Amino acid sequence: MEMNDAMAAGPERKEMKARVTVGGHPLHAILTDFPIACFTLSVVWNFVALFVNDQPWYAMTFWTMLAGLIMVIPTALLGLMDYTKVVKHRHPGTQTAMIHMIINVFGTVIFFFSLLLRGGPGYLGPWMRLLTFALALYGISVLMLGAFFGGRLIYHHGIGVDPDGGRPVAGPTDQPVPSH
User: Is residue 12 part of a domain?
Assistant: First the structure.
């Protein structure tokens, strides 16, 4: 059995193209890299700031977290557009899409609270350093779970996948190419 055959197996896989694409690629999936990178970097900078207790680590943590929260906005809006299409077509992946959305909103809210508690890019006291780091670590863990469900939407349910695979559909005179 080829990998494509294995991926297509099962009643829950019903390929559905994303609402907004760029060059055939789903824009929501492309944009998710930006907030993920920013939030991950903010956790790394936060970890360093926790032990070094010096600038520029506090500022880097604050600004990368803020950039992640800003980039979440277009990413979430595009995801919401795809979600409405999934619900409208009563796709078998609707429940997984809802779980993905709820988990990612929750993770984003955790990062938002961590950013609010920071109050800016300046120094933090020892307890606030620890609290904001714990929140960021919890937030990235929650977002990793959300990413797992996002991957399930693509690989298990076929959401955000071009059903034609970017290939032209064979016409009545086209002959299949034998495989070796």
Answer: no
